Structure formats: C-alpha cells, structure tokens
C-alpha cells in the first residue's frame, strides 16, 4: 500500500469541503507540535508532503492525502495550542470535533502522544470525544529519539493507565521516531491492515 503513489488531495476548512467518504480513512490527531505532520512524511517516505514546523499551530486545515486508490491519510490541526488568537483556535477546535464525530469512513484515529510527556488533560478530552463517537483510536508515541531509555517505561505505563479508562482505545501502543524511523514500518502495516 505504501509502495503506491501518495498525493496531497486538499486542505479543508469546513465540513462541507470534505472529500466524498468513499474509502478507508485514518487520521492523526494530537497536541500542537507533537509531530503529526512529520509522522505522515515518515510514513509516506515523502519529506515535505505534509508541512511540519517548529512553530506550533502549523497545520490549520484538515489535510487529506491519498494513499493509492484505497486510503485517505488525514493530517489534523493540533489541539491545546494556546498562543493563536482565541477565535482561530475555537474555529479549528470546532472543525476538529465535527470531523472526529461525523466522519463515517474514519476507521481509526491515531492519537499522538509525545513520548517525553505522556497523556495530558487535553488528550483525555479528545479520547472522551472519540469514545462518545465510537471511533477506535490508537496511541502513537512520538519523538522516541528524545526519550532516555530509563524514562520510556514510565511514560508507557502512564499511557497504558490512561487508555484503560477509554472504551474506544485500541490497547496496543506504537513507539515511533519520525526522525530515526523507529516504529514507522509497524505503523504502516497497521494502516495497511485496516479495511
Ligand atoms: P501542528 O501542525 O502545529 O499541530 O504540529 P505537528 O503535530 O504537525 O508537528 P510537526 O510534525 O510539525 O513537528 C513539530 C516539531 O517536532 C518539528 O520541529 C519536527 O521536526 C519535530 N519532530 C517531529 N517528529 C519528531 C521526531 O520523531 N523526533 C524529533 N527529534 N523531532 C521530531
Ligand atoms: Mg502539523
């Protein structure tokens, strides 16, 4: 699946701009700056197909990428970013919630968690929303290259503990580094296996 063509389809700013729900879709949600866009670049092997940046709040639209003919990969705006104008943040958050709750073909949401920081209160809010929408979600720990081996197990346990409270959570965690490539092949096969 990942050997086929990958293309940017469109950026969406309102629900009526969503492409037709005609194929399996997975999305990448997470706090601003957690590494959503970088992960899409690593998965597709196309550096720069999703715009990544050190500036939190980089992704401001729902960006659709086509993976061959049969999948959409969806890059979402980050949540929990306090430094944008309130009206802008509220607009993104509303769109994000509408999308997560209303997309029929959304097969799995990957909720990205910084492997240094674990699950935060804003992540819990998104997880609750996904529970109520009955969208299966799976946690992907990002920036594994920045975590000391000693701290790893502690964060993994914190995340496992948090997931235990969420009926929509898929229990298996994926530890990744978009920089070094850890976990990228595993995540590709998880996505390829969804139907
Ligand atoms: P928003 O679109 O603002 O919500 O951010 P995002 O979640 O898309 O994050 P993005 O991919 O833009 O990455 C944010 C910063 O983290 C960038 O400076 C990336 O280079 C860095 N980053 C992302 N993934 C990794 C990783 O695996 N390891 C390291 N060391 N840095 C990473
Ligand atoms: Mg982004």
UniProtKB/TrEMBL annotation:
Q: Name one GO biological process term.
A: division septum assembly
Q: Does the keyword rRNA-binding apply?
A: no
**GO cellular component annotations of the record:** cytosol
The family database entries (InterPro entries) matched by this protein are listed as: G_ENGB_dom, GTP-bd, GTP-bd_ribosome_bio_YsxC, P-loop_NTPase
Q: Which cofactor does it need?
A: Mg(2+)
Q: Which UniProt keywords apply?
A: Cell cycle, Cell division, GTP-binding, Magnesium, Metal-binding, Nucleotide-binding, Septation
Q: Does the keyword GTP-binding apply?
A: yes
- In this chain the EngB-type G domain maps to 22-195
Q: Name one GO molecular function term.
A: metal ion binding
Instruction: Fetch the CDD domains from UniProt.
Output: YihA_EngB (cd01876)
In the record, the note on similarity to other proteins reads: Belongs to the TRAFAC class TrmE-Era-EngA-EngB-Septin-like GTPase superfamily. EngB GTPase family.
- What is its biological role? Necessary for normal cell division and for the maintenance of normal septation.
Q: State the NCBIfam families in the record.
A: GTPase_YsxC
Q: Know the name of this protein?
A: Probable GTP-binding protein EngB
Q: Which organism is it from?
A: Pseudooceanicola antarcticus
